[in-house]
Amino acid sequence: AKLDPGARSGAIHADTIEEFERDGRRMVRFSILADHADPDGERIVMERPLVKEVNIKLRNTARRDQRLAVRLEFCLAGERHNALFTLTNRSNFNYPVLLGRQFLMNRILVDSSESFTHKTRCPR
Known about the structure:
Mean pLDDT: 86
Number of strands: 9
Distance between the termini: 19 Å
Radius of gyration: 15 Å
Shape: globular
Structural class: mainly beta
Low-confidence stretches: none
Largest sheet: 6 strands, mixed
Strand content: over 45%
Number of helices: 1
Helix content: under 10%
């Protein structure tokens, strides 16, 4: 994941994003890679309640992108967290997951002089 205090929200690389309804509730079905280092590897299909739709300003353009946002649990530096992520194709980016300032605020101090300071190891 890339810690990006310049981005407002988090984003995760997802494919086959499909909105549907279950029991009167708006839901989203999508797939993510089991191992982001292996783009041809196993995919995990997830279904989550739609939290909201987010309008994202695309970098270096005047265009905006409408994205679906869901809450996901994840592990960072040995601790479990829950955050809001927009679902989008991040295959052209170096990092499949972006953690923005809404998550970072009051939790994590970003030192821009350092890289890869923690390994992710969370108990299952």
